[in-house]
Structure formats: structure tokens, C-alpha cells
Design goal:
alpha+beta; HIT family, subunit A; 6 strands; about 20% strand; globular
């Protein structure tokens, strides 16, 4: 079980999670043949098992990614040994929602993409307003509103 996270929405020095940074380096190198700019994600919470960052291209007013510190490439790599970690990630997502200032007026979903765009396991916590300039295409919409988005089930 986790304690109540202290959510920090603005940090003076945004940092990258090691897993996210390494993933983005690999993806940049694969796409361009060389390393280009590094993505810098704003950390909002971390504990001994996970880090929560704001999505770089949020598809709603509130859109966080919960990444495990352990390098797990995707849902396909998850085993029974990861069950406690997945439950912890879900619980952290619930805490993020509980501490969100708009929690009373918005609905949220927690889930994974069936075919993720990032090669590091990550749980999306996303408000269902889909109010974002980054929501530009049908693909963006469908990635959160169809069976492509796999709900996270916790022991709530």
C-alpha cells in the first residue's frame, strides 16, 4: 500500500525519469539515425517503485503517465511477478485523481495502450474532457476512447 503522495505540479527544474529518458533516446535514435533533443518531463510524484510525469502531449486537461523504475518494455513483458507493481501503479493513479483540483467536475480513466507509442510500460491517468490542443487526429481520439485503451483494474 502507498502513502499519500505529495503532488508537485510545478518544479523549478523539470527532470526526466531514467526509464523515460532512456526510452526516448532509443526512439529518437531509431527515428532519425542519431540522437536529437532529449525530452524533459515534469515530474509530479515519485516513490520507491514509480515516477509520475505529465504527458508531453496531453490529450486532456489532466494527463499523467505513471512509469515503473524497473525497465519493463510493455504489457507483453508483464508476468505474475509484476502484479504487485501494477496494483501499486493503479493506486498511485487513484491518488493523483484524489488530489486533482478538478476531480469533482471531471471523470478520469486509468489504462494502458494495447500498442504503446513508448517502449517503456506506462499507465495513463487521463481526464475525460479531452480538452487539449494536442488532441489533433482521429488516432489520438481513438487511442483513449476505443478498445485500444485497456482499463487498469485495481483492488478498489
Amino acid at each position: 500500500m502507498i502513502g499519500s503522495p505529495t503532488v508537485v505540479h510545478k518544479l523549478p527544474n523539470p527532470i526526466c525519469s531514467l526509464a523515460a529518458l532512456n526510452c526516448c533516446k532509443r526512439q529518437n535514435k531509431m527515428k532519425t539515425g542519431r540522437r536529437t533533443s532529449y525530452f524533459v518531463f515534469c515530474k509530479v510524484y515519485k516513490d520507491e517503485k514509480t515516477v509520475v510525469i505529465k504527458d508531453k502531449y496531453p490529450k486532456a486537461r489532466y494527463h499523467w503517465l505513471i512509469l515503473p523504475w524497473d525497465p519493463i518494455s510493455s504489457l507483453k513483458s508483464v508476468t505474475r511477478d509484476h502484479l504487485e507493481l501494477l496494483e501499486h501503479m493503479h493506486a498511485v493513479g487513484q491518488k493523483m485523481i484524489e488530489q486533482c483540483p478538478a476531480r469533482e467536475s471531471l471523470e478520469f480513466r486509468l489504462g494502458y495502450h494495447a500498442i504503446p507509442s513508448m517502449s517503456q510500460l506506462h499507465l495513463h491517468v487521463i481526464s475525460q474532457d479531452f480538452d487539449s490542443p494536442a488532441l489533433k487526429t482521429k488516432k489520438h481520439w481513438n487511442s483513449f476512447t476505443t478498445d485500444y485503451f485497456l482499463n487498469s483494474e485495481g483492488n478498489d
